[in-house]
């Protein structure tokens, strides 16, 4: 690391590790630049204008291109932000040594962390789950349509603060008072890749308990399942033999459709067991104003403050169950956490991230006389 000119990390824990085991003549050579979320996209503010994730206004686009060497190649809307900047920096001839945990980690987290979408969909491939019946059945479509109508009616001040605003929904809504809904379903979302480190095992055990306790609960697993792995075999067996199979969904979304999964959810679970940086799926859920229950692992404790904008608990089934059950029974608490989560996500907004990268690259090029 002493031979590197600057290190940029998306993970506060990597930064802590570097400062714990290394000394630096220049303390400012180690920079933390966490992953970002396109809050405008996930709140729906850019939906009517057709602006998707990664889209930027002309000012931001020109600022970044000018810094990295004046390249005018158009960035594909499906590429990750970190990849764009890295490619642009290379085109500009900047002689910057990046650590693997710097921009490489940004790419990895932008793929692995986008557990609520198929990573391959970022390359333009629709990844509808082969085992699901066309992604959503008629019941799911009806639920999503109901949620879309609710969010369209919400005022800007309360936009995306959760789908639990019972009074505004009336008889067809999900809830009419705090506590369990009188009609409709409660929906629990696991927006991760279905893998061991992302917490698929505790999530399945959690689903067993909650489906037994909540007759109106729908549990959705929204993420890629890597076939022919032990986890895939276990999940398929669990799902195919489950007594409540009709209330369990497994869907894989593109980035353009994953927002629907967050909209429909009442509670989002991020039950990571290990290996977690700045979780994009957590940021996405927070941007949508959702109540999140997250494991106290990796960078999740940089996003969730327990009891303020969500619940942060040990990655055990008992701890996760207690937190999720509390939220499923308390609509007012879901709204409270969701509103604070939305405000927290604004600090990780994509425009701020771009501006920080622009400033960082500008300063670095100046140091190198470029």
SSE map:
Blueprint: E1 7-9, H1 12-21, E2 30-32, H2 39-43, H3 58-67, H4 81-91, H5 100-112, H6 138-153, H7 166-169, E3 186-190, H8 200-213, E4 217-222, H9 230-240, E5 248-251, H10 255-264, E6 267-270, H11 280-287, E7 291-295, H12 300-303, E8 311-313, H13 317-329, H14 331-345, H15 350-367
Parallel strand pairs: 1-2, 3-4, 3-6, 4-5, 6-7, 7-8
Keywords: Transferase
Domain Glycosyl transferase family: 183-341
Protein name: Glycosyltransferase
Characterization of this structure:
By secondary structure, the protein is α/β, with parallel strands linked by helices. The chain folds into 2 domains: 7-119 and 349-367, no CATH class; 138-347, Glycogen Phosphorylase B (Rossmann fold, 3-Layer(aba) Sandwich), CATH 3.40.50.2000. The chain has 15 helices and 8 strands. The strands form 2 sheets. It has a 6-stranded parallel sheet, with helices on both faces. A two-stranded parallel sheet has the order 1-2. Helix 11 (280-287) links the parallel strand 6 (267-270) and strand 7. Helix 4 (81-91) packs antiparallel against helix 5 (100-112) and helix 8 (200-213) packs across helix 13. The longest helix has 18 residues, at 350-367. It is elongated, with a radius of gyration of 21 Å. Residues 47-183 have low confidence and may be disordered. Residues 111-139 have a biased composition (Basic and acidic residues). GO terms for molecular function: glycosyltransferase activity. Keywords: Transferase. This is Glycosyltransferase.
User: Which blocks of ≥5 consecutive residues have pLDDT under 50?
Assistant: 47-183
Shape: elongated
What would you report as the Rg, rounded to the nearest angstrom?
21 Å
CATH topology of the largest domain: Rossmann fold
Side by side, the strands of the main sheet go 5-4-3-6-7-8
Q: Please trace the helix and strand order, writing H or E for each element.
A: EHEHHHHHHEHEHEHEHEHEHHH
